[in-house]
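Batch job 17 of 40 flagged for manual review because the log was empty.
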Amino acid sequence: ALAGGQEVAVQDEPLVASGSIEAVEVAVVSEMGGQIVALSAGEGDTVTAGQTLVQLDTRTLEAQAAQARAAVAAAEASLANVRAGTHPAQILAAEAALAQAVAQHSAAETALQDVQAILANPQDLDAQVARARTEANLAAGAIEQAQAGIAAAEAKRDQYRAQGTMEEKWMYAVHDYQVQAAREGLAAAQAQKEGADRTLAALEALRDNPLALVSQVHQAEGQVAMAAAGVAVAEARLLELQAGPRPEEVAVAEAKVTQARAALRAVETQMAKMALTAPLGGVVTSRSAHEGEAALAGTTLLTVADLDEVKLTIYVPEDELDRVYIGQEVEVRVDSFPGRSFPGTVSSIAQQAEFTPKNVQTEKERVNMVFAVRVRLPNPGHLLKPGMPADATLATPSPNPSPERGGGYDPLPAE
C-alpha cells in the first residue's frame, strides 16, 4: 500500500504478550492487640465495604469506658454545682460559723479583762476565792440534800410491791420515777461541786503564785488573738460564698469536664478499632488468623481484593509499540480456563521504557527495552484471580496513524 508516496507495511500478525493478573488488594490490619472472639469471613467469601470481619475482645476496654463515663458524669455534676453558685444552706452555715467565732472572741476578751482586772487589783482575788469557797460549800450541801432525797424516794417506792394490783404497780412506777429524778439531781449536784472545786483551786493557785497570774494574762491575750483570726476567716468565707463562683473556679471545672470527655473518647476510639471491617467490597483472598488466637497490633489478618475488575500488565518491545494504543481491544487467556478468552482494553501505556522484568516471558526474542502496557479486564464472575499467568492478544491496529499511538502515551497509574 502507498501513503504519501511511501510504501507502508501492514502487520496482520496479532501482537501477543504475557503477564500476571493483578487486582486491588487491601490488607485488614489490626491496630490494637487482643484475642479474636469472632471471625466472620474466610478465603473466597464475598464481603461488602464496612462489613465487620474480625472482632477482638473488648471486655477490658468496656470496663475502662464505664469508668470514663462515670468520670464524665462526676465532672459535669461538679461543673453544674459551680455554675449554680452557693446553696442557701451553705450561706446559713457560714453565717452561723461567723456568729460562733464572734461569740468566742467576745468570751476571750471578757476572760482577758477579768485576768487583767485581777492582776491590777490583787485584793479582788481574795474576794473571788471566798466566793468560790462558798459556792463549793453550797454544792456539797446540795449533794447531801440529793442523797437524802434519793433515800426518801426509795423508801416510798419500796412500800409498794413491784408485782401486785394495778394500783400498786402504778404507785411503784410513780415513786420509781421519783427515785430516778433524785439520782439525776445528785449527778448534777456532784458535777456542780466538781466545777466549784476546780474554780476554787485555780483561784487559790493564782493567789499563792502571782507569777502564774501574769502567765494567765499572756494566755488570755493569745486566746483573744486566735479568736480574732477565727472571726476574720469566718468573715472571708461568708463573703466568698455570697460572691458566688470565681471565673477561675468555673474554668477549672470546665477543664476537668473536657479532660474527662477526652478520656472517654479515647477509650471509645480504641473500642471501635477492636472491630475490623472490610475496607472495600470484594473477595477475601487470604486469611491468616483464627478465632481464639491473640492478634498482635500491626498484624495482617485478612486480605480483601476487588475482583469486579482486574488488570493485566504486559510488556511490549520498543520496536512494536506503534501497534499499541489506548482503548485497543485485548483478548486474554489463562491456563485455568483453556479455550476461553476474556475481553479487555488497553487503559494506559508507560511513558518511559524499562528493562524487561525477569519474571515475564514473551513469545518473541527478548529485547533490551520494553514498555509496560496496562490492560483493564471486567471480571463479573470473579474467575480471574490475582497471580494467574495470562497471555494477552492485542487486536491488529488500523494502518492509519493514531494520535494515541507512538509518542503520546499515558503514564501508568501508581500501584
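Reviewer: the log was empty due to a logging misconfiguration, but the result itself is present. The chain has six helices and 15 strands. Unflagging and moving on to job 18.
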